[in-house]
Write a structure and sequence with these properties.
Helices cover about 50% and strands about 20% of the residues. It is α+β, with helices and mostly antiparallel strands and about 425 residues long. The protein has three domains: about 120 residues, Alpha-Beta Plaits (2-Layer Sandwich); about 100 residues, Roll (Chitinase A, domain 3), CATH 3.10.50.40; about 160 residues, Trigger factor, domain 2 (Orthogonal Bundle), CATH 1.10.3120.
Length: about 425
């Protein structure tokens, strides 16, 4: 669709080659351009010197002859932002990117003209969003899952007692480790003393576990370890190294009893039964969260499949940039940096999810409008209280924090999306 608009200084032609793109053709009024050209020429004249003329006194004809092309371009640089602002206001456009200048024409005897290409916020109307196919997601907690968590708590309180016997799986050993060179001689400068080794741990070299099984304090073993080709230390990748390992101490793990005394170490005054009940409730909350997340993901995928549309490339790239920044933060927390090649791969892997996320956001916004889903002050206040309770924050302090920056607006936006998703789930066809 093409639309023409004329304002005082410009004639605009609007075309929409993509749902996310506007191309604005601009023709500049001759008189307006001439006026601005003369103003710019006077600015240039103030700076020009010529033999026989003081600065600022060179004849205007000479200035225009010598600097005409430069003055034209400087005039254009001044006019383009004015035209751009007038065009977007006239049309009611909401740009999400800076304009690009194309098709510039500045021929003698013809009006100055150019085009401005901009990315705009897509106008989306969600359709066919009721009775989306949705799998029933049930939250369940088994006794085994509760026992697993409780056992981990017991493990954290485990004591290790020195024993005078051969080591077995689950024992903790203190060992001296020294690598041997190709001649079978110890490389003493690389020796590690009193290293804590958990026999049977998940990430151990199998050869270490097998070699140290049955070893007692004072025993020395020569054990080979073959490193995988992708081992994190480059100089060891694919290599087989022999280590001389001396056992200094063997200790046996002793777990506390699951009784009221132990439960009270987790929470004062708590019984063993109350501890298991609390664990079950925590697990149920987590399972409910997972079930809800699975339902949300599934219903959004179904919604997007029924309402696919194109997005502005710059918007997608910004979404990917945000994902990359979060990934880099995670790397930094681990004391690492994301390599350029890893970042490149991550960007490509993130592209599809970025597109789907943005499409979902626009579609949910459309549904909120169509279904008159509003965020009232009462709903927002209730949500703030709910978040404070979920995260065990002091309510008054949390309320104060939401008043900083744009936190309240962010919470309101997330709540609006939640309510729209609630609507979709409640109207879905569950199987």
């Amino acid at each position: 669709m093409t639309e023409n608009k004329t304002v005082e200084q410009f004639t605009f032609t609007y075309t929409e080659p993509e749902s996310w793109k506007q191309v604005i053709g601009v023709e500049v009024n001759d008189e307006y351009f001439a006026t601005e050209f003369d103003k710019m020429a006077k600015e240039v004249r103030r700076k020009v010197e010529r033999p026989g003329f003081r600065k600022g006194k060179v004849p205007m004809e000479t200035v225009k002859k010598d600097y005409g092309s430069d003055i034209k371009m400087e005039t254009l640089d001044k006019i383009v932002p004015v035209a751009y602002k007038a065009a977007v206001v006239e049309k009611g456009i909401y740009p999400i990117s800076d304009p690009s200048l194309d098709d510039l024409k500045m021929d003698e005897g013809a009006p100055v003209s150019f085009s401005l290409s901009i990315e705009v916020r897509p106008e989306v109307e969600a359709k066919d969003y009721k009775e989306l196919a949705l799998t029933e997601h049930k939250a369940e907690v088994t006794d085994d899952a509760v026992d697993e968590v409780v056992n981990r708590m017991l493990e954290q309180k485990a004591e290790f007692n020195k024993v005078d016997r051969g080591a077995k799986s689950g024992d903790q050993l203190k060992v001296d480790i020294v690598p041997l060179n190709d001649a079978g001689e110890p490389e003493s400068e690389k020796e590690v003393k009193d290293y804590g080794f958990n026999l049977g741990a998940e990430n151990n070299f199998k050869s270490f576990d097998e070699g140290l099984e049955g070893a007692a304090a004072g025993d020395t073993k020569d054990i080979e370890a073959t490193y995988p080709d992708d081992y994190f230390t480059p100089e060891l990748q694919g290599k087989t190294v022999t280590y001389k390992i001396t056992v200094n101490e063997v200790t046996e793990k002793s777990l506390p009893e699951l009784d009221d005394a132990f439960a009270a170490t987790i929470k004062e005054g708590q019984t063993a039964l109350e501890l298991k009940t609390a664990v079950r409730e925590d697990l149920m909350r987590e399972e409910e969260r997972k079930a809800r997340q699975n339902a949300e993901d599934e219903v959004i995928v179904a919604l997007v499949e029924r309402n696919e549309f194109d997005l502005p490339p710059s918007m997608v790239e910004k979404q990917i940039d945000s994902s990359v920044a979060e990934a880099k933060q995670r790397y930094q927390h681990m004391g690492q940096e994301m390599a350029d090649e890893d970042e490149k791969k991550f960007r490509e892997l993130s592209r599809d999810s970025a597109v789907k996320s943005l499409q979902g956001m626009f579609l949910l916004e459309s549904i909120r409008k169509q279904e008159d889903i509003e965020i009232t002050p009462e709903l927002l206040a209730a949500r703030i209280e709910e978040l404070a309770e979920q995260n065990k924050y002091d309510l008054e302090q949390f309320k104060q924090w939401t008043e900083t920056g744009n936190e309240k607006e962010r919470i309101a936006f997330e709540l609006a999306e939640k309510l729209a998703i609630d609507f979709l789930i409640s109207n879905a066809k569950i199987s």
